[in-house]
């Protein structure tokens, strides 16, 4: 009964919490910044290893130089995280990277100055401060930007960006000054409280030692190294250990059980979390795709550098795998502490670098104790036993994780597991890699050609007259090759669809004004993604492009894609109403192909419904025509125009007419055409409608 509850409830809840974290923009920003310093951490570990090798070989000057170099890397890490969180925020939210970085660093300097009047150089900062200042500054700028757009319809978004930057910086400076001047005592008390709280984890006895294990391992859930977060504790702990060993050598006292070397040996074999055991588990899974990690992670693990494994498996943002990651060093700590307390193994009498390979480190630190080496190997085996059930069952879901990732929303879809083997293991690294790949593809598109517009006519079946044109985006390479809009998935993935939609709206309206003004009673139909509908700039852009009206008789129509999931439906309905109040028609595209079809009909204000080609293909089935008729009747209930897409044969056309559909779009009539071809088509249609002789007779 307990097993069933564990499998179907606890792990399901943990998995759901992981999904929420993966879709949280703040968590994404933190993870992006921690991933940015992974190369820095690896290089630092290698530099420390080089220092140990030089010290062992007798090159003390080189060893000192390497050690000072790693201190520089350590001091640089928070600043790199602060900058990268700004870069990540700018890219994800379509903001200026320069302004976001400047604001993030400025906020960091202000915060650093408030906390310490003597602070002159902002490299002397902590990671929590670096992350907090990066997020606070950029979130505040985003809020200011949205409110500026509400106050005034700006013609140039650059004005909003520049003004919001200075307003945000002023707000932060004023608020910080107010806190410093008006709440200095409270600030001092708060700093004292947090200092005292961190000292609670100082490992001076068994219970506090457990807290220290948690302090070092648990923050890795967010990709944060516990050593970086609470460096003051580790520095004091190291100094105390050196003094203790010195006193022991001089006969002035006994050795303490707890020391940095104790934790490095028993709780950090392979790196924090005793990840050497995790590597062995992965090695035991012969068909596991995660075995590709071994070529990178295994050599690093020999020197107790585990970032490639933590981010690659991952441990980060994985509520299931964080359990053995924390549990394994805890068990090792308690076993090793008990064995040391009972004198089964000797206390550590030598200071050995954390980057020294495990068995060698145990041998040296314990004064060449065989029993200590045997216990080390035993605890690695215990760690394997703890990790293995989590690894075995998590890896079974790896093949399915990409299929469950919605590239438009970034959400991960799942169903409730009914067995432990069904608990998914979603990797944020896969998600981040797909995001970076999308960015690379976009950069390649932008550097190898340009976007162009095509138009596909929509025909009224009663007289075969073109009454509307749907504008479509294409990419034309420098060599002249035209690419269909398969590239849009990259813009959807990176959240940049609003940029594409705004570009299409602006250029399509300009093209119609310049080249199609002679056509009358026409509709220009533009596709708008769900991302764009909830973009706070949409109404501002619409006001800007409609300042110069369309030619007489033309109407603007926005097509909302039904096959894509809409986020914030209440916000979408509100925006649609505002667009209709501006005279813009709303059409529901791809009806019958995606999400919540009936819900769309009843919730959103619609003027036109475009039936998906799947309805046409369904006509080949025995009940296909009857089904199409019922769908048409349903659409007529809400009094919308009905257009069907994808008609390619005369047989399909006849059935569509019999079903009562009045508008059609498909290859039987017209394929998507370049602008000049559509202009000729509309001009020819106008000539047929008003031949020259009729025009002369009227004159």
UniProtKB/TrEMBL annotation:
Membrane topology: Multi-pass membrane protein
Keyword Membrane applies: yes
Residues in EAL domain copies: 435-686
Domain PTS EIIC type-3 intervals: 10-390
Entry's Gene Ontology cellular component terms: plasma membrane
SUPFAM superfamilies: EAL domain-like
Major localization listed first in the record, in broad terms: membrane
Localization, UniProt: Cell membrane
GO biological process, one term: phosphoenolpyruvate-dependent sugar phosphotransferase system
Chain segments annotated as transmembrane: 26-53, 65-86, 98-115, 121-140, 160-187, 293-316, 322-342, 362-387
GO molecular function: cyclic-guanylate-specific phosphodiesterase activity; protein-N(PI)-phosphohistidine-sugar phosphotransferase activity
Keywords tagged on the record: Cell membrane, Membrane, Sugar transport, Transmembrane, Transmembrane helix, Transport
Top-level taxon of origin: Bacteria
Protein's name in the database: EAL domain-containing protein
